[in-house]
Design goal:
The structure holds two protein chains of two kinds. Chain A is an alpha+beta fold. Chain A has one domain: Alpha-Beta Plaits (2-Layer Sandwich), CATH 3.30.70. Chain A is built from three helices and four strands. In chain A, a hairpin with a 5-residue loop joins strand 2 (26-28) and strand 3 (34-36). Chain B has a six-stranded mixed β-sheet, sandwiched between helices. A four-stranded parallel β-sheet of chain B has the order 4-3-2-5, sandwiched between helices. By secondary structure, chain B is of the alpha/beta class. Classes of the chains: A alpha+beta, B alpha/beta. Chains A and B meet through helix 3 of A and helix 4, strand 5, helix 14 and helix 15 of B.
Chain lengths: 83, 459
């Protein structure tokens, strides 16, 4: 079981609160949109939760990724545009 | 050989007897097997249902009834991969859809929003019944009760032609389920599979956040198979002739045949059907490569630029091009004519891609125009600050941060241009642009860049 931060890039409008609250894992790009670095270690879980709750756009999520979902995610990740 | 379908000449192909003997020899030498393009040279219109049946034989009478497992096994054994750009194994995607809960939905993707590609339009214009057969077979394979075909709103002529083919089939009672034809707004990202699903569900033709992917929850919340029309045409032939037949064509690790669109420094630009795995150089030769071309854009506007010398001997397949960091994408090959500026072409493409986003995700809304500006400054030899290092930094942070892969594709194209035209890029950055860019010789675009649609036209 892994704890991961996910951003809904469509919902995110670049408020930047998450990077203030969780600078250990989130930095902002030059336009103010968050860049997330890796999985959330256990000692930062509480901070991560706080950042999620603070997002005005509800664009930040904390997700647990159980191993049995790995195959499904592999399929999803390998699919791209079909045009 | 002449192209199966000549570029910009949708209604006027060369008669096969007009080919000169040299062309014929080359055609044999390259081992080209017309499958999807069979008899395209003979008529300048869509094959009727009667002609289609005479050409390929009937879909096996039991194909519609026999278990879907056999069809899926055949498609898997054939090794068919998606021809829309992702090269994903078709049977794997079908199995994921078939495993979903409840009746599935099939969506045929005929949007062909890649400006440099013409193969899907050519296929639908000449052999619509192959695609419609494929939709029917795919529906059986995944247990679908409903099927859709998505086309671009800008191509009314193609819609009319496909509707006529569907009318023929309805009269003949050819299909178990009907196919609904839809005309979608034509933006680059509108052909992305989640955009199709979103539009079919009543929304805008813009990509949506994933998960869920369409195979999990798509049209009407049902498991949905989105496949490119060429992929479905191959499915139609596999259902008829089987996996072993499919694999009789294919070389260099590729299976079956594929449609390619070849343009640029070639004497006979157009759509060619080649064995999967044919080398990049051989595909270009088929179209009459002029010797003085040094670079090639492969895959399309989401594709990558390469030195022709480096890539000429590689198979034009996902696996074959991977070592060079490329992909066949939608089957596009563009040979940059000698004496023209690759950076200028890349800048033009980048500007187009930046304008074609769905304006939903920050990294794409701001990042792509920023890179387009950098590239334009560089191409013009009028750098402000250091566009090369700005771009390198921006390449590193934009990929993977959009809802769809639009920013990833655009960044990949731009980065490959800087790699391939590195010497030019450094000269341009020192305010010494190449002659081609300097003289404005490329005022007229070599690669087609469609005029962007009016803002807001997404539904």
């Amino acid at each position: 079981m892994k704890l991961n931060l996910q951003i809904d890039p469509i919902a995110c409008t670049g408020h930047g609160l998450c990077a203030d609250l969780l600078p250990e894992l989130i930095e902002l790009d030059e336009w103010g949109y968050p860049i997330i670095g890796g999985a959330v270690p256990p000692d930062l879980a509480a901070h991560a939760r706080r950042a999620v709750n603070a997002c005005p756009a509800l664009a930040l999520r904390l997700v647990r990724t159980p191993d049995q979902l790995a195959a499904r995610h592999a399929l999803a990740a390998s699919e791209t545009r079909g045009g | 050989m002449s192209p199966a379908h000549a570029r910009d000449e949708y209604r006027g192909d060369q008669d096969p007897d007009d080919r000169d003997p040299d062309d014929r020899r080359r055609r044999t030498g390259a081992g080209v097997t017309p499958r999807l393009t069979m008899d395209w040279q003979r008529a300048d219109r869509a094959a009727t249902l009667r002609e289609h049946s005479a050409r390929f034989g009937p879909l096996r009478a039991n194909a519609a009834r026999r278990g879907n497992r056999d069809l899926l096994d055949q498609i898997a054994a054939a090794g068919l991969t998606g021809r829309g750009g992702a090269s994903f194994p078709t049977a794997k995607k079908m199995r994921a859809v078939a495993a979903g809960r409840g009746p599935a939905v099939v969506v045929a993707n005929g949007m062909e929003s890649e400006p440099a590609s013409e193969k899907d339009q050519a296929l639908l214009a000449r052999a619509p019944h192959l695609v419609l057969d494929g939709i029917s077979v795919a529906a059986t394979a995944v247990g679908a009760a409903e099927a859709h075909l998505c086309l671009s709103r800008t191509r009314g002529w193609l819609v009319d032609s496909v509707l006529a083919a569907i009318a023929e089939r309805e009269q003949a009672g050819a299909d178990r389920i009907g196919v609904a034809v839809h005309e979608l707004p034509h933006h680059y990202v509108s052909s992305e599979e989640t955009a199709l699903v979103h539009w079919l569900n009543g929304g805008e033709a813009k990509p949506t956040s994933t998960p869920p992917r369409p195979f999990e929850r798509g049209v009407g919340k049902r498991p949905t198979l989105v496949d490119n029309v060429e992929t479905l045409a191959h499915v139609a032939l596999i259902a008829r002739y089987g996996a072993a037949w499919f694999r009789e064509a294919g070389t260099g690790g590729g299976a079956g045949t594929m449609l390619t669109t070849v343009a640029g420094a070639v004497s006979r630009p157009g759509v060619y059907e080649v064995e999967a795995g044919t080398s990049v150089g051989d595909v270009l030769e088929l179209a009459g490569l002029r010797e003085r071309s040094e670079a090639v854009l492969i895959g399309g506007y989401f594709g990558t630029w390469h030195d022709l010398e480096v890539i000429a001997d590689l198979p034009f397949t996902a696996a074959g091009l991977r070592p060079a960091g490329g992909s066949p994408g939608a089957g596009v090959l563009f040979a940059l004519p000698a004496g023209t500026c690759g950076l200028a072409e890349a800048a033009r493409i980048m500007r187009y891609l930046a304008s074609q986003g769905a304006q939903q995700c920050g990294p794409c809304i701001f990042g792509l125009p920023a890179i387009a500006d950098d590239l334009a400054q560089l191409a013009a030899g009028r750098p402000e600050g250091d566009p090369l290092s700005r771009m390198q930094r921006r390449f590193g942070v934009i990929s993977g941060r959009g809802a769809c892969r639009h920013p990833d594709g655009a960044v990949r194209m731009a980065a490959s241009a800087i790699r391939t035209f590195g010497a030019d890029a450094h000269a341009h950055a020192r305010r010494r642009p190449c002659l081609a860019a300097h003289r404005g010789r490329q005022q007229t675009a070599l690669l087609p860049v469609p005029r962007p649609f009016a803002e807001g036209d997404w539904r």
